[in-house]
Amino acid sequence: MVGLPYDFLVNPLGAVRSTFEKAISSGSNPASFDGKDWGALQPFQHFLFDQNGLSKVPILNASSVKWLQPNTLVRFRGMIQDMLGNEFYVGAYKDGSTWKTTKFMNSSQCPTGFSPDMRIWERRVLYCVPVPGQNSWTDSSRLGEINNSAEGTSENRQKRCRMDENAVDHMDILAPSDEFLNSSSGKKQKDEQLSPYSQNISTMATSSPSTACNTARGFLPCIVKIYDAAESELKLNDVFEFIGVITLGTEQEVDKDDYDEFSNGLSEDLSDQFPPDMVPRLHCVIHRKLGVHDFLHTCHVLEPIPHRIKEIRTALLNHLTIALGNDGVAAQFLLLHLLSKVHARVDSMAVGKLSLNLTGFNRESLSIFGNQLRLTVKNLLPFTEYIPLTVEYLNTASLAPKKDYEINRLVPGVLQLAEGSHLMIDETQLEVGTLSSLGVENARLLKNLMELQKVEYDFKYYKMDMTTDVQLLILSEGKSNILPADLVVPFQPSAVGSTAITDMDALEAWRWYLSNVRLLPHSIESEMQQVVENDLVAAKQADRNLGSQDLSRLLTIGRLICASYGETSLSLEHWQMVKELERLRRERLR
Amino acid sequence: MASDSSPVNFNTGPSSPDDSFSSPIGNTVSSSGDGYRRRSRRRSSTPSEMATPPRQRPRLVSSETTPTAKEPRSRRRGGGRGASGSDVPPVAATPSSTDDIPPSTEPGDGDDMDEDHPTFVWGTNISVDDVKGAIIRFLRHFRDRQASQSEGDFHTEGKYAEVIKRVLENEGDSLDVDAQDLFNYDADLYTKMVRYPLEVLAIFDIVLMEMVPQINPLFEKHIQTRIFNLRTSTSMRNLNPSDIERMVSLKGMIIRCSSIIPEIREAIFRCLVCGYYTDPVSIERGQITEPTICLKEECQARNSMTLVHNRCRFADKQIVRLQETPDEIPEGGTPHTVSLLMHDKLVDTGKPGDRVEVTGIYRAMSVRVGPTQRTVKSLFKTYIDCLHIKKTDKSRMVADLTEAENRLSSNVDDLSFDEEKVEELKELSKKPDIYDRLTRSLAPNIWELDDVKKGLLCQLFGGNALKLASGASFRGDINILLVGDPGTSKSQLLQYIHKLSPRGIYTSGRGSSAVGLTAYVSKDPETGETVLESGALVLSDRGICCIDEFDKMSENARSMLHEVMEQQTVSIAKAGIIASLNARTSVLACANPSGSRYNPRLSVIDNIHLPPTLLSRFDLIYLILDKADEQTDRRLAKHIVALHFDNPEGIEQDFLDLHTLTSYVSYARKNIHPKLSDEAAEELTRGYVELRRRGNFPGSSKKVITATPRQIESLIRLSEALARIRFSEWVEKGDVLESFRLLEVAMQQSATDHSTGTIDMDLITTGVSSSERLRRESLLSATRNIIMEKMQLGGPSMRLSELLDELKKKNPENEVHLNNLRNTVSTLASEGFVEIRGDNIKRI
């Protein structure tokens, strides 16, 4: 970096400017930069990826936001929660005789008046939030915390935060037509709404003001402005890392009684909804999509050697078996479940999903194994959510995201989850009761999610299906009929073991294993295909009740078993395992 | 406003930064300000406006007044005026910069088109005069193609000349101009209008100003031009900076309307000290400047002026948010929205939830940092200045407009296939395997069930509805009932059809009550007014109403369907409301057999267990039986394996994609109205007679679904649908045969024993054996003979085993099983020939 006239980290705009000037001086017309890059990205790319500058870029989060300097380069990892449309801005203008650009910055210094010497460009505005259910271990700054003792609290706190966030966001909106709108009444409702699962939370969390909550728990949304990216590149609920220039509270103070043609009509000024001091703006220079594996901080990238993978598998399986009270069969299925992923959609069918329903829980075993299981999963996967299903919860929770046209925002729902999230639903607490229409709707949403891996977003005048990829684990007493899972496995614990994790390396390896193995490709030999087909036909002949779902499930299990051994092609041995597992499972069901 | 009209201003037109509306992009305005100015002055009656040249299209929307008007602000003002007619007070007098030249009072004396040197639209080589001439020509001479066979016949008036007259008669204030007409007449003008809408529309207004007095000198209002039906409509998503200041047409859904905003146009102030009223002060740069000093010479009090609200003039304004329709949203995106600005008459023309097509000018407005600061942010707010708004209702397959009433509003005719597409579809229809291909494309993920899919296909295409002069009407909608074992993907088929059909409604029988299906009357808790709310069937008028779990529906609710399915109306008489609502809907229902699974020992009717009155209203009743067939299973297994391993073959076949399928169906429904050919009619008659005869099989009346006259209607509908599939205007013999086949297959009739009404499962799997039927018939007659011989009327009973022995004695070569015999005897019993009690038979 020596010798460069600017420092990418501290003065990224310097880099932007100098490339712009270079481009202009080489005779380009600013008009030709409409919707295009003039060469500003290349030096950044070079710096970040070739010179390994990425790790030096500070991460923007609730704690770092306090000390980050405006107009420096930062990165933000988050999920696209809402898209706020496009924004037109003066991208380049002529100041005297020289062209200047305002790309990647907030600028109010643009000349008044309009002249042909001004180019109007367009950028996309995205509202991003930290990935829902993100576990603290993914945060590299908190590497040490593994066994988070206050599980319930943090979960709920986070949820609270999301909701409070809304309350804050909408504070100045008048029409109280929606429960989220009016801050005072909204808050009250919210507390009620949370009560089913906040009972066990310390009152501190409930009473803490939302701002405290925000910073305490590290919930920091961010408005990201994207330049020149193809629309299809960024999708709702995708998890991205945005590297760009931060502007904090620097946006000129907006006068509330600004005379504005639209102000008395539709208030949707961004700065009204998201005060710049609460929600930083990031002018994104480079973005990249993140997968689950990007959230691990193993420096030691493991080689996918088959024999090493088998070792990890055995150890992990062992760990899961202990967590499940020595129930080996359940552990096998749990492992497969944790590896599942939607890898194709054929019409309405999501191929590859494997939701698991562990039955046979009662209050007692739930208190022991339920928590243990949650903890285990939390430690293994980066994004986990937990829903204690009760009638009250169903009747009050807002599961599906909903568009609020008053503020022109998509109000998040519990089911707005990033790809690869894990959702555990505890049905044991469900008691007899009456569902309201909201409850019925929520139950339907959950069922759709189970069956199709789709969530219906409510756009008021119509609904829109959004595909998701969420692993669903249901704990219930008997087979859950509200939430029909692909696999129903009666849970039969025989011992209580401790799942405390001692070996950090092993844990890291397991995380790596879970996030990487599921990406393996999969194929089948033609002889094997024949075998499988024959077996399916035989199974179908033997039991007329088998539907295509059941057959499909067998193949999914086959694929996952195979992947769990780090292999990419279904072998006869693994197919036998599939059948054996299925046999064991059926035996239990009987 | 006047003030703004300083020449400078207009030359630089675009740059007028002042007001918040100014567009960033330079455009506009005639170069030689003076020529124009002069002219305009002359012409405009109300001086105030005149000042500015045409660049403003100001609102065509609103402003009627002098068209010439200009700047946005004038637009605003204009709007106001619109409301109050041309009674504009002598504003002119005021400060307005009317410059030195006194306004000419005559409106529109203008024929000064040929004025001095040509004026140009600023920044272009478009001559204002040329444009004006073109517009005049268009308005005077454009004729509809069909209306005017003889072009150049000067005796008939042009289309728009007539329209203008009509507008004048109705005291209207706007002239709708179909951009398509404009394009046909003068493509160049059209292009200019789209590119420079402000200027061109202003000229339009000027022209109208001039034409109106020629027709009716007493007409005082101003007529605005509203353009609609642009040739291309933009997707909201694709609006980009280059569209600013252009005319665009967008489709979307209104999601929010602001309340109506009174926008001040002119203010009057009063001095608190002396009570002096100022002359109206008009809006300038989006603001009204309050005089600091009383203008009355004797008073001159400082800061004493106060606004007199009820003497100010306001105009209506409304901001509406338009959102993309769901079908335009790419996967993984959220809908985009755009603001619309509506003035005057357009206010409240749409309400949230309406799907509309909007024509307007895309504009950007800079955002000022503070109310008092001149600096602006580098951001722009964009909005569409609305010129014309048209409601559309287009969802999924386009519901066909068969009724004359719908034809009237030709604008609503939103289903416009472009010619290319039509060609493509026609090409497709010529393929010999189009029927099979469509069948394959329907719910491709559902395995097998080809015949069911064929039936559903017919339902989608539908037959011809007929309305006789006598008032009798015959429905064209085909109703289908699917009865079948659990797990045979009935529900999935339903869901699929529901998604595909125009206005499909999906309900589940268990959750539906009679009123939920038809309509109910509710009372508004606040006003006490009674309101009629439509249920599923009414809502799916002209669509398909899918009812799942039909068997689990309450008897009461089901009975509501009788009327709907034949008369296609829903009648209500409650709470003082007596109404008959149209419910021209096809019903697609599915049900499980009475015992959840099909019971082969019961007759089909007993299995379905629905009242015959209802059954006869279904055109096709499918029995979907889960047969243990290795072939099928193997195909299923292959399919699933392929699914999991991305085996391209097996998955990818030549399906039509959903979009093509829907447009194919929509086109056919709309444009193809097949008629019966003689040959087909003959075949129908023959087949029907045959059908009747079969139903009259001795003793079977209760066990088999008998053909009724309804069935012949069904057959006609099916045949028509089949012809439509081929895009054929004639129903041919092949169609009729296929419709008979469908009817047969549906009921598994090939495997039905007509004497007992049961389905022989062996027959289904192994194929039909006609010898079997013969054998049974001979057994029947043999048994009958024995009974006649051995038993007396009312005599002692006889055991079945004895009977069996007798039979064996008589025909030693024939193997007779007890079961066969039992069947035979029960047939006899149904004829009333014998009576069975346990194993005992008694002749009666």
UniProtKB/TrEMBL annotation, chain A:
It comes from Cucumis sativus. Residues 139-159 are annotated as: Disordered. Pfam families: MCM_bind. GO terms for molecular function: chromatin binding. Residues 139-153 have a biased composition (Polar residues). It comes from the Eukaryota. This is Mini-chromosome maintenance complex-binding protein. One of its GO terms (biological process) is DNA-templated DNA replication. It is found in: Nucleus. GO terms for cellular component: nucleus. Keywords: Nucleus.
Automatic annotation (TrEMBL), chain B:
The lineage of its organism: Eukaryota, Viridiplantae, Streptophyta, Embryophyta, Tracheophyta. Residues 14-34 have a biased composition (Low complexity). GO terms for molecular function: ATP binding; ATP hydrolysis activity; DNA helicase activity; single-stranded DNA binding. Belongs to the MCM family. SMART domains: MCM (SM00350). SUPFAM superfamilies: Nucleic acid-binding proteins (SSF50249), P-loop containing nucleoside triphosphate hydrolases (SSF52540). The keyword Heme does not apply. One of its GO terms (biological process) is DNA strand elongation involved in DNA replication. It is an enzyme of class 3 (hydrolase). It comes from Cucumis sativus (Cucumber). The keyword rRNA-binding does not apply. Its EC number is 3.6.4.12. Keywords: ATP-binding, DNA replication, DNA-binding, Helicase, Hydrolase, Nucleotide-binding, Nucleus. Gene3D superfamilies: 2.20.28.10, mini-chromosome maintenance (MCM) complex, chain A, domain 1, Nucleic acid-binding proteins, P-loop containing nucleotide triphosphate hydrolases, Winged helix-like DNA-binding domain superfamily/Winged helix DNA-binding domain. Component of the minichromosome maintenance (MCM) complex, a heterotetramer composed of MCM2, MCM3, MCM4, MCM5, MCM6 and MCM7. Interacts with ETG1. This is DNA replication licensing factor MCM4. Residues 1-13 have a biased composition (Polar residues). It is found in: Nucleus. Residues 1-120 are annotated as: Disordered. It catalyses: ATP + H2O = ADP + phosphate + H(+). Probable component of the MCM2-7 complex (MCM complex) that may function as a DNA helicase and which is essential to undergo a single round of replication initiation and elongation per cell cycle in eukaryotic cells. Residues 434-640 form the MCM C-terminal AAA(+) ATPase domain.
